[in-house]
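User: I'm new to structure prediction. If I give you an amino acid sequence, what do you actually give back? Let's try with this one:
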Amino acid sequence: MQKYGREICATAQGGDILIKWIIRRFAAEGKGIELNAVQRLINVSGELMNGLIPEINKIASYTKGDRVTEADVDAVAHHIPEAVVFDMTEALAKGENNAAMRLLGELLADKNNEPTMILAIVGGQMRKMYAARVAIDNGLDKDYVMKALSLRYDFIANRLLAASRRFSTAQIRRAVELCAETDYAMKSSRTEPTELLKECIMRIAAG
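Assistant: Good question. You get back a string of structure tokens that encode the predicted 3D arrangement of the chain. For your 207 residues, that looks like this:
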């Protein structure tokens, strides 16, 4: 098996390993890539190598110059639902509610994204933000948050902490509760799940 097998990159790699691998893949396509563009690619398309390979090929073909920028990544890379939710919760934290609702609309426009699935991702993200907010309140540092939440990258932890600081602890706790209440409503009421999801996000936005 070892003699005739070949490596299949289906696992998530952490830290510098994945960053260096992405840089090498773009180099093989004849492109350099800025570090912030590498980070954005990981943010929007995830950490699985087998999922990143087609995105790298697509971005390399799209990029006109010899260096890939963050704008190139945003223009053509596939945005996984978790990435869009992260962007949406950042927008909510900044008070950019119209942007948050637009991102929710993008998620709902993809028929592969069921409202229950989107809500589960939002709830998970809010729980992470609540954990980060509690850590901030208790004077705990980024390293603690990364370990507690199994985050592999500084830049993801930095985004999470920055968004969490914009909410009060009570606001994020209430957001977590709203997600749980909406999940129950989706499973127990006859109200359209899409409308329940929209209402949940609007209530989070209202604080």
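You can read the tokens as a compact description of the fold. Here is one thing that stands out. DSSP finds eleven helices and two strands in the chain.
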